[in-house]
Amino acid sequence: MEHNASARINPYVHGARGLFCLMVFVYHVVHSGLPTFDLFARGLLGEALQTGKFGVEFFFGISGIVILPSLYRASSAVAFILDRYARILPVLWATVIAIAIFGWLSGKRLSLLLVGANLLAPPPFIDIIQINPAAWSLGYEFLFYGVCAVVFLISGVSRPLALALAVTSLILLVYYPRALLMIGGVLIAEKYLSSTLWQSLAKYPAIFFVLFLTVWRGLELASATDYVGFVTPAYLSFHDWISAFPFVVLGGVFGTIFLLGMSRGNGLFGRMLRWQVMQWLGTISFSFYLWPPIVMAGVKLIMSRMGLVDALGSGSQLFFLLVSLPPSLIIATISHRFLEVKVTGQIRKRLDRVAKPAVRPINKVLDGTQGGNLMGEQSNVLDCSTSHRRKTIAS
């Protein structure tokens, strides 16, 4: 969240963060490997529960919506990047260090090199083992932030160079289609989807929510790879990838229409996102995204050692959900108040004093007083650069 963010928060986007976090949490339960009832494992409901993982894609879309305005408000591109690091790293580092300590105490020693690499949240093209399985998306986030900031900086110096970087970023995005909705988010933020047709379709966000999940789940099943290799050329033959790509684009269109309608509070979705519980979940969403895998690992270990899995049988997964959720919410709330508010707040105060004189202010670039080009060209370049971004989760 940005300084003075309360005056700029879109309550629908804020509530959506809570919804998407809840989706991811449910997916972790479903994917726990614990026995469950056939009702939850098969058929339409079973497939629907499997789509909870795609809440991360929607987080990427939220990133596209909120990050460009955040960049415009920043005093400089350097200040923007430092602010993003201050926003994300305290919680990320706390979870990674907690997992490393737990591993060392339990005899599963993790190398310092692996722990250090995880603390940096490397981009997706650097393949490393994720100590915190939920943190994979942060590499997309940081790459998206960096691309936006660099394009913004160099566009005032060399627009062809900026466009070249933007095109390169889009090529990377094609290779990693899970971040596709970042483009949709940027289009929404830059008001490129204001035509009557887009607005009419966006009146029914629930329909396009279901359509996106259906297409994305179908692509996952058709690609016959795990989610890590989702429709990427590295995991598919060229023919299969080309065959799947039109459906990737279709899914991106459906997801973008959903994000547009959601961000405007349309339909039942809009009313639901204004609920107090959704607003609260939106507030703690980043911590609620990163801490539950650790809590769940502990609960699952206790269940196994106490013989509860054998005793509960098909009820194990439901019990796991009910027991894991309360401590996950409590820890996320504590993490938000201490790490996201207090620690990040202190870091931001120090960074503000350091970063302000480092680079020319962005608002001067925008009004054309430096660099020669202006707002219209800048917006178009940024639109092209939307390649990689996460969970807004982290914005």
From TrEMBL:
Provide the Acyltransferase domain boundaries: 11-331
List the keywords (alphabetical).
Membrane, Transmembrane, Transmembrane helix
Highest rank taxon of the organism: Bacteria
Instruction: Show the Pfam families listed in the entry.
Output: Acyl_transf_3
Coiled coil (residue ranges): none
Keyword Transmembrane helix annotated: yes
Membrane-spanning regions, if any? Answer: 12-34, 54-72, 84-104, 138-157, 201-219, 239-260, 280-299, 319-339
Task: Enumerate the PANTHER family for this protein.
Answer: ACETYLTRANSFERASE, BLR2367 PROTEIN
Q: Output this protein's name.
A: Acyltransferase 3 domain-containing protein
Its source organism is Bradyrhizobium canariense
